[in-house]
Amino acid sequence: VVRTTFHPDSDYSTFVGCYKPTTKKVAMRDVTGKVIVENDGTQVTEDRIVYEFVDQAFLQAYIKAWKFYAEAAEGAEPKKQYLIIEEINRGNCAQIFGDLFQLLDRNSYGFSDYFIHADNDMKNHLAKKFSNFKIEPGVKESINSMYNEGDVIKLIFDGEILLLPNNLYIWATMNTSDQSLF
């Protein structure tokens, strides 16, 4: 289960993901570019601020759902993944979901009827996250047969497209007594 709570300041980046500053340890170098080493042979390091794409609630649940597909044995149902959105009415859903709304239409098998193309940043991020994922051939064929796009699973695991799998459930709560309804 992945949980999030919507509020008036929620937006696409706080729901899906965005670049955020993080720290990374790097070797310190002297003015000539040589790595500085202590007398005991250990490298001197410092924390450097870098920007990395960071998953938020939607992508965390999305990646886990496809991971469960990759871990499922042939013929076995993948584990279920839940994304719980608390107080969905407090946020501006059009602003928060953006083009993800299109994914919410599901076919009779529970997969998204339509897919969306990922932007370059999300594409690169998803390709890294999915790099070791493999789906059993029979399952891959059955998913690919639902769409006229060739190898849909390859497109998903390359980060080209987003498509909700049938083991990803999105549930939301609503506070009907809240006076700041959108």
Q: Keyphrases for this structure?
A:
alpha/beta, 26% helix, three-stranded parallel beta sheet, single chain
Strand and helix order: EHEEHEHEHHHEE
Number of DSSP-assigned strands: 7
What distance separates the N and C termini? 25 Å
Radius of gyration, in Å, reads: 21 Å
Low-confidence stretches: none
Helix content: 25-40%
Q: From the helix content, strand content and strand pairing, which structural class follows?
A: alpha/beta
Biggest sheet statistics: 3 strands, parallel
Question: If strands are numbered along the chain, what order do they take across the biggest sheet?
Answer: 1-4-7
Q: How much of the sequence is in beta strands?
A: 15-25%
Concise account of the structure shown:
By secondary structure, this protein is of the alpha/beta class. The protein has six helices and seven strands; from the N terminus they run E-H-E-E-H-E-H-E-H-H-H-E-E.
